[in-house]
Amino acid sequence: MKTVSSTMVVLAVLLTVLLAGCSRDAPQMQEVPLPAPTPAADLVIELASNPERLKEVRRLCREDREQVSEELCIASAMATRQRFMGDGKAKYTPEPVGLPDARLPEAKDE
User: What DSSP state is assigned to residue 66?
Assistant: First the structure.
């Protein structure tokens, strides 16, 4: 019984020494991003309605970012999203989707 309690004391001391050796590093300073410019709504609509121009602007933003403005790249991303997602006024289908009336085969006990 005495060896169990002395072993626990040794383990407690060892754990305390190990934890005392751990130190926290100082938090690293993170760079705060500047707010992105907000493109004009008519620019987004113009790009969304002209797929060839939108494709060209997306290519320029991808390949040579310094050549085009940040506002134009953000507008092209918004136009691409608008073309993909639509105007957000899609109607919900009121009828439930009909599932086939197929039954799964019964499991066989082995």
Answer: G
